[in-house]
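Pair request: fold both.
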Amino acid sequence: MVSDLVLRYFNLDDALQCSSLMQDHFLYHAINLPIKMRTQIAKGRTAEYVQKIAKDRLIVVVVADDKIVGMGALKANEIRHMYIQSEYQREGIGSMIIDFIEKEAFNKGFFSIIVNSVDYSEEFYQKKGFKSLIKTQIIRHGITLETILLEKILE
């Protein structure tokens, strides 16, 4: 486990680092998407985009050595924008973020939380207690993505 990790709320000064984290994910790790689509999505993940989405959702970041290495967001009761820097994956950062977001959702009065996940992340969410509901397609920024809708009942 990586030591000296800090989970905290996003602030506007984090936008550029969060943007880079998102772009890296789509350019190099979203291999289930065609390269043209990955490039198009990555181009849209600017610092301005991150600042815009921060207006209507709770965003948390995980920092190691003054660098954002993970992020996640909550919009109503839906988890959005879960990204972990590749060299920090499988170090418990995703679990830190999910655990925090679940508590936030429960404290806001939600009794369940959902996530639209790509297939390669389904196992992670299942290990965190989520149940797969249905395979679906969602449209984000004019792009259709194959996803799996998962839900967890909060207690």
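--- second member of the pair ---
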Amino acid sequence: MFRELTDFKGLWTLTRYIAQRNAPDAELRGSATMRPDAHGLIYHEVGLLTVGDSPPVQAERRYLWRDGGNGAIEVLFEDGRAFHRIDPANLNDTHWCDPDTYDVTYDFKTWPNWSSTWRVRGPRKDYDMVTRYSFAGATKPHKGPHRPIAPYHTGRMH
């Protein structure tokens, strides 16, 4: 388990699988860099996204990670709007984006490998998304076992 926000500083490999109920499944493979700024960390994700049988396209995303007090992390959109919270005391959170609901669960049992699982539901959205992170270098997180993550799931999730 992480101890503080700065434990995430560095380069992470990521794999993401998106199981969509009404559209082709998708997969993203890439990396996330978490670098310090004056208020916490900037999360910058890049990778190749493949949707169904379509050719892969470059994908990119940024978030702001901030100290939320008592070991928690506030995750903000790049423009500073609140997104969700990572709280070691409760690794589940919900983000409402009218009319859609985004439920997330974090798993840090094999730190510094970790994952986020999103369940997204709304009138036009219905998918589950699992992202697995593995520390790749730069600034080493605090000591902990470094075990390989489970093989990446490429079948349809239920």
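Observation on the second member. The radius of gyration is 15 Å.
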